[in-house]
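your task:
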Amino acid sequence: MSTPMLVSCVFVFAVVAFCFIKPQAARIFLGFFYLAMALGVNGSFTFGNPQAYLDYANGALIPIYRTLTVSIISLSPFLFGLLVMAFEISMAVLLLNKGKFVKLGLLGTMLFLVGMAPLDWLQLPWLGLIVGEIYLFRQDFDRSFLDMIWPNSQKGASNA
């Protein structure tokens, strides 16, 4: 097993365990994780080398998926990168919110992981995050990240 594959597997296992042990904290972690991936990984691809998206798509494991992704990305790799970044940032904001917004963010990130998996063998372990996200989906999150860090903000807003 390659080092990147091993690191991915260990990371995914740790995050899934985190989801079961501390669902609230794990949900917040995932929100910041997707935000970091949007800005860090996809930001560097989009603004540094958008052609990398096309190179990545050309290596897709399933031929029909390869054809589909290459035909979409080749229209404008830069625009594709911006859209991926916008999607991941949106999912992060939803995960950091509360109630049904969190569930929508979890559904979106699960679909994102499924969409990424056929692109490379190294993406397959990331499907394991879906196990933790399904568990989180069954939880209720009645406080947003902002509610947690500023607990009195709701009282002040309602008294205004």
User: Anything to note?
Assistant: The chain has a mean pLDDT of 94. The radius of gyration is 17 Å. The chain has one domain: 3-159.
